[in-house]
Write a structure and sequence with these properties.
The chain folds into two domains: about 180 residues, no CATH class; about 35 residues, no CATH class. With about 230 residues, it is mostly helical. It contains eleven helices and no strands. Helix 5 crosses helix 8.
């Protein structure tokens, strides 16, 4: 695909990683949300070093614009937690810096920041972040009419949902605020740092993927493997 210069570039085509993203996200949320009872939930957030780095990065782009976009997509409301309350930006920061996220996806998220600010400057003569709510709404509505803009916004919305539902060890959902809002009783035990899905041994990751795809249950696989060994 030729280089893309904006959300409205006619040469843009939805990349393969986004085509399969929705299915992967459902599998992740299914495994992550069944993590722990709220009463037993420890508070796990960014490390001190990561927090200092994050606090500085969020003052400038691309994180300044990403934070403003996430907060606009899920603003403060009396009916539920906001992107700020579920720490959606901190969650995305971990996705981009700690979790094994595809480089193509990270590049797309960051390129979208530049495209959004270029569009904001062409329409409002300044970057996206300092604009009032009504102008931000108009701009996001505008880019949503393009395939690239729709894909970019859907990607960020997906990470908002993950930040709300994943255990706090992944960077969002502090104190289980998302679970409490949804009145969701999650499973047990909660994965702590060092036990997150991307930190599991290779064989454990395979088992999680098999179960998430609703294929042959893990117990059945063990039984079948045992039978094969005995026959040998």
């Amino acid at each position: 695909m030729p280089p893309i210069s904006s959300f409205f570039d006619k040469a843009y085509r939805t990349p393969d990683f986004l085509t399969h993203k929705q299915m992967k996200r459902r599998a992740f949320l299914k495994s992550a949300a069944g993590a722990s009872a709220i009463a037993a939930m420890p508070v796990i957030s960014l490390s001190a070093k990561q927090q200092v780095q994050f606090d500085e990065l969020i003052k400038t782009d691309p994180w300044l614009t990403l934070d403003a976009t996430l907060n606009h997509l899920l603003p403060s409301s009396p009916t539920g937690p906001s992107a700020q309350e579920i720490q959606a930006t901190a969650y995305l920061f971990q996705v981009m810096t700690v979790q094994p996220t595809e480089q193509e996806e990270k590049d797309f998220i960051l390129k979208g920041v530049g495209w959004l600010n270029d569009y904001a400057n062409s329409q409002k003569s300044q970057n996206f972040a300092p604009l009032p709510f009504e102008d931000k709404e108009q701009l996001l509505s505008g880019i949503s009419k393009s395939t690239a803009g729709q894909n970019w916004l859907n990607t960020l919305l997906g990470y908002i949902f993950q930040a709300m539902l994943a255990p706090p060890s992944y960077g969002g959902n502090p104190n289980g605020i998302g679970y409490q809002w949804l009145e969701h009783q999650a499973g047990f035990p909660l994965p702590e740092k060092g036990q997150r899905f991307f930190e599991l041994p290779s064989r454990a990751r395979i088992a999680v993927q098999v179960q998430s795809d609703n294929k042959e249950p893990l117990i059945a696989r063990k039984k079948n493997n045992s039978q094969r060994i005995n026959k040998a």
